[in-house]
Amino acid sequence: MKTRFAFGGCPHDCPDTCSMVFEVEEGRLKGVKGNPDHPLTRGGLCVKLKDYEKRHYHPDRLLYPLRRSGPKGSKQFERISWDEALDEITGRWKAIIAEHGPQAIIPYSYLGHQGLVHGLNGGDAFFNRMGATVCERTFCGEGASTAWLLTVGPTAGVDPESYIHSRYIVIWACNSVSTNLHHWHIVKDAQKSGAKVVVIDAYASRTAKEADWHICPKPGTDGALAMALIHSIIEQDLVDRDYVDHYTVGYAELAERAKDRTPEWAESITGVAADDIRTLARELATVQPAAIRIGVALERHRGGGQAIRAVTCIPALTGAWRHVGGGMTQFSVWEHPYKFDVICRPDLIPKGTRVVSNLQIGRALTGEMPLDPPILSMMCWNSNPVTQAPETDKIVQGLLREDLFLVSAEHFLSDTASYADIVLPASMGAEMEDIILSWGHLYLTYNAKCVESPGEALPNSEIFRRLAARMGYDEPNFQWSDSECLERFVDWDAPACDGIDLSTLREQGYARLKVGTPDDRAPHREGNFPTPSGKCEFLLDNPHNFVAGPFRQMYEEFQPGEALDVLPDYVPARENPSVNPELARKYPLSIVSPKSHSFLNSCYANMDGKLQAQGEQFVLINAADAAERGIRDGGTVRVFNDRGAFEALAHVTADVNPGVVVATLGYWRQLNAGTVNCISAAEFADMGHAPTFSDNLVEIRKVSQ
Asked: Hey, how many other C-beta atoms are within 10 angstroms of the C-beta on 206?
């Protein structure tokens, strides 16, 4: 049999965006490996992507359009043709629009696919043309984005590859071993060369266990730790005054704000010893280059945005930005030349179109959120809100409405697709051409179409092209092929693309943007921050809350708009025993819900091999909390609060401190008695309408031993 190879890009919601090599035999995907030439991938893939081909040919994969034939959620469907499916969808939509207006329809997507063509924004132009309700998508990173953009602007910051030059590395609220593996290889290489690696996380994650020093603050208290570090850097006279004087705004005001945010004050809030805070401050300031890599988990409580603002100030205080491998990394995507206005077509949105958050879709569907007109139809693709969004019991209640017409484009009958009226079979990674958005490094990554989709599955782009034709939308972008989209969705004339075009990517599989090399990139050695002042802004001028455009279909009306504090500070979590003692008497345990090691959000959580590697749904609990409740290791427990409950196996461990429990995200509800987001609140964090997945109190009771 003749074997051929093609370049691929991992489409999953991960900062690594691995360059891959597809192995194809007789038109069938036979294997996938990491691209050995890629400086970041280094020929390796994570546990999730190994056996990627098995997901393409899984026996449960959806192959044909389906129409619901039984009660919602029963998974009873009948096969229909594409013409029948598209006619029914567009017929129902036209009737809804005629009677209630287009805002009675809402799109719902996220990063189940990360491609420019088939990913997060792939359906935006279609629904913007329709005039549907705009869906604000803020599952992760949006609060961090708001805080970062306000403080240092749209910069990629420290190149992840430059960490090889760092002598002091802080991984803050990021489990790199499970969620940023290829950057972790670079960190480990730096560690072997003498760099000290500090992990700040609320439990002993896989990454924390490999660090030189694990600092373990209580959930939701990172802002207090960051403010105490600022205080201590100033108190110990470790400020790089020359850098501060020339390249920052508002030092005097920040110093005044931090004056009483002492390490002792922070110790009483965070549980981190004051002496440890002073040591961390001293080492961060004096061991250069020092780099901070923050994870999206840092935003996931009420004060997450302010915590990130405080952390983002630290490298400017210490002058770390002067050095290659010094400074901070949030999202590298800010320096990628993607043309989101061309992708999303916000110019098509009718003025006054309303916005609904994907985090609060349960409230929108149940009528708890007053909407006129109500949501009467939703199309869901690249997302599985029944497991991934908060307040999932409300979402299920809303999806059970007989007057709600739900369309789902999916690979499997996921928890959400189970409630759909029409299910459309969607193509997978090796079956469609795309450039995969990279939010964790400085490479463009190409994905070739190298096999045909099985059955009658279609790429997301083709689904929207066919829907647009039936709706009568004749704008040119609805006729572009995937290749034509790629020619238009990237600004190939941007300086970052010097010497790079689409043919380059097709030949090489990836290309590094022209934004400096890992060995010389120090973008803010002399300031040059892309902020209004050109400096790192400790002090802001009349700031207001916002969500970055790509996360809201590039729509700028009805931004959150609340006035923000002009300086960073500690904002307590909403559900915290010290802040909310009355609630804590009923639900005394703080729960943290990080990503799972073997799943990518809810992808792979229906595959036996990944489930075996990940283990049954579990909750980590400290021995003291377990003994108080008569819980034994391996016993089944019920985790609950007023919002809902789920069952899990108890893992009694010293990896969590007393008062804290951990349950990972991604398990499917149809395979378990609830999942962790049953207990999550759909309240926003302080910036960017970010979620508060780690700002929830629960109680645990044993079910069986």
From this structure: 15
Distance in angstroms (rounded) separating the CA atoms of residues 352 and 101: 13
Is the pLDDT reported for residue 86 higher than 70?
Answer: yes
- pLDDT tens-digit map of 201-225: 999 999 999 999 999 999 999 999 9
DSSP 421: S
The three-class DSSP label of residue 618 is strand
Phi and psi for 485 in degrees, rounded to 5? -60, -45
Question: In this predicted structure, which of 35-44, 249-258, 376-385 has the lowest mean pLDDT?
Answer: 35-44
The whole-angstrom distance between residue 231's C-alpha and the CA centroid of its chain comes to 31
pLDDT for 705 equals 67
β partners of residue 640: 645, 699
Give the CA dihedral 398, 399, 402, 408, nearest 10 degrees: 150
* CA pair distance 435, 433, nearest whole angstrom: 7
Q: 7-24 burial, b for 16+ CB within 10 Å, e for fewer?
A: bbbbbbbbbbbbbbbbbb
Rounded to an integer, what distance in angstroms lies between the CA atom of residue 572 and that of residue 587?
18
CA atoms of 218 and 21, how far apart (whole Å) = 42
**Per-residue confidence (pLDDT) for residue 1, from 0 to 100:** 72
Q: Which residues pair with 657 in a beta bridge?
A: none
Contact 363, 101 (CB under 8 A): no
Residue with tokens 């490094």: 441
Look at the chain and count its residues. 705
* End-to-end Cα, the chain, rounded Å: 53
Band of residue 680 on the pLDDT scale cut at 50, 70, 90: very high
pTM score above 0.90: yes
pLDDT in tens, 317-331: 999 999 999 999 999
Tokens, residue 553:
């279909």
Residue with tokens 């030189």: 212
- The answer to whether 385 touches 361, Cβ cutoff 8 Å, is yes
Segment holding 407, helix H or strand E: strand 405-410
Q: Write out the DSSP string of 262-329.
A: -HHHHHHHH---HHHHHHHHHHHHHSSSEEEEE-GGGG-STTHHHHHHHHHHHHHHHTGGGSTT-EEE
Query: Which phi and psi angles does 104 have, rounded to 5°?
Result: -75, -5
Nearest to 303 by CA among 219, 223, 201: 223
DSSP 461-475: HHHHHHHHHHHT---
Q: How many CB atoms lie within 10 A of CB 494?
A: 16
- CA max distance for the chain: 72
